[in-house]
Each structure stands twice: as structure tokens, then as C-alpha cells.
Predict the structure.
Amino acid sequence: MLQILERRVVAAPGALAREIDGNFTIYDKQNDSVMVLNDTASAIWRLCDGRAGSAIAEELTSRFGGTPSEIERDVASVLEQLIQRGLLVDPDPS
Amino acid sequence: MSPKAPVLDVELLGTLIRTIAHDPELARHLRHLLEDVRVATNEAPGETFEITGGRAQGDWVLSHNERGILQAPSRASLVEGFFSALNELVLDEFSGVAIHAGVVARGRRAIAIPGRSGAGKSTLAAACVAAGFAYVSDEALCLDRDTADVIPYPRPLMLSVASARVLGIGEHSSNPHPGKFALTPADLGGRTNSLPLHLGDVVLATRGKALSLEPEPPAELIPELLERCFAGRDSRAASFELIARAAEGSRGWRLDYIDAIDAAALLRRTLQLSPPAS
């Protein structure tokens, strides 16, 4: 699962995200569905600007402390779910 | 049309509607029910309902723009059909986003209780009005497309006989009409809010569980509201954007209840509404 941390990610073009009271709600145009992110997933989503998952994990570790390996697992788990749902994509698909 | 037929002009969600009821008793009844949205206008309304009949049993006819749309066996049935047709017309014409919900107000804050038809939102809205909240709508949370403000849609409350019993409205609880009947907020001792509001609170209500009211993260409101969105000329994505904008700064609640009157009292206490002046 941790291999996913090597991937660079951005919000998919069909994902509309709105932050309300610290949490992101994302509307998926493709599937007409809505997903509400918890605090951890919202913090990760905020950093999905084209950087790699590993860089997101490093940034969260430096901001909030904690064990790097645990944070890497959390980031990998969230990215996997968001990619699977088509809400995150590679910024430079080849 | 008879030259003396009573004419009633109303405005709901920006649509101007003329109603002509030839039966004097029915005309008085409709005037009472629509008092809060009545307007005086020189403008010719684009929509006209006309109600004829009443001389013989079963001959009530409702027309919309000179086209017959309903034949009803009784006055009560005609009134229910009239408000159903009015509702359909007004929401169809509305340029913003409408979401199935009962809505009441506390000051300039709208309190929306989203729910499907039959979920008890009219009963809960009526109980809230009787508890001192101002009435906004028992049918729809209507959001202005440009400002995301809540636009009042104070059609008469439509209640079933079962709801009347729950609310202790004696004169209607033995109503022989099997459908719904119309009431004004004033009939419940309350009042109507006619001004635009901001969305202050969204209450996700579930009937059938012990009374409780717990905070809900505002982000969780968006899927609930979008699911109950039923009118909007914009795309679903635009509706999402508007709903999210309206929900910014609002509070979310999850309400479990069995008795609508108890639920309204709990909402009044929790949302810090002053008790109605005695």
C-alpha cells in the first residue's frame, strides 16, 4: 500500500471541494455523489496540489508531529480511497 | 367569469398568481389561508387559477389558465388539489434551488428540517410554529441562486388529520376529509416570516427514537440537503455549490423524537428562542 506514496496527486477535474468548518465536502460530478472528509482526510486533501504522497506525509509530520511511519500509513490509506473513487488523479497523466 | 367573482392575487417565490373563486365561502376561506402572501397589484398575473362549482355535490372544478386540471368531489378535496397545483407551479417557476424541508425562523436565522414527503416535516414545522418559531415553509427550503439566502415560501401548512391529532388541533382532528387540509400559522397561534433569511441551523430529524438533539458537523449537512434537492434549473454541481455556500456558518443538528411537540420544545430550548410573549 505504501507504494502509493510515490504517486503525485491533484483533485480530479470533476471533483468540487468546499471547506466548511474545517472539513471538506467533495461533490463528484462523474458519479453524482458527495463525500465528507474527516479531519485527517481534510488535512491531506488540502495538500494534494501535485506533490507526491510521501511529501504530503512529511509535511503533516513536520506540522503536527507524530510517528512518521504511522502518518505515512494514514496518508497512503486516504490517498488510496480518494484515487479509487476518482477524486484524485495524477497531475501529468502520460 | 362572473364580474363579481372575488379575485385574490398572491405572490409566492416571485411568481404572481391570480385566483378566482366563484363560491363566496370558498373565496373567504382561500383569502384567510393566503392572507400572508396576498398582494395588491395592477400588473396582470401570468398565472390564473379559477374555481367553479359548489352548487351540487361533486361538481367542483379547478382550472389553470383556462384549462381544467381537476374535478373534485368536495370543497376540502378541491382545496387540497388547489394547493398541490399551486405548489407545483410555484416551485417549477422558482429560479433558485429548492430542497424538501420544513423551515421555521428565529430572528433572521432559518432553521431547516429536511425530509421527504410523509417524513413528518409539516407536523414538526407546525409544532415549531406553535412553540414560537416564525413560519417559513412546510414544503421547501428555497435558496436564492445569487445570494444563497433563504427565500420564504409560506404556503399554508398542509396537515393530515393524524398530524392534527398529534398537535391537538381539536377542530380538525375529526375532519372527515381523508387527505390533507390547510392551516395558517395564525391558526396555530404563530406568525409568518416574510423576509429573506440566512441558513442558521439544519436539523436532521428522525422520528421514532427517544428524544435527543446532538450537534452534527456542518459538512455532513451537504449530502443530506443535496439528496433532498428537487427543484433547480442549475446543474447538480451548481446546486452543490449553492447549498455549500448556504451551509457555511450554519450549525448542524441530529434530532431523534417521537412526539413533535416535545421535539419543538427541545429545539426552542436548545436554539435559545425566547418563550412567546403571553
About this structure: The helical segments of chain B are 24-33, 75-93, 121-130, 161-167, 170-173, 221-227, 236-247, 260-270. The interface with chain A takes residues 217-220, 222-223, 226, 236-237, 240-241, 244-245, 247-248 of chain B (CB under 8 Å). Residues 75-93 of chain B form the longest helix (19 residues). Chain B has a mean pLDDT of 89.
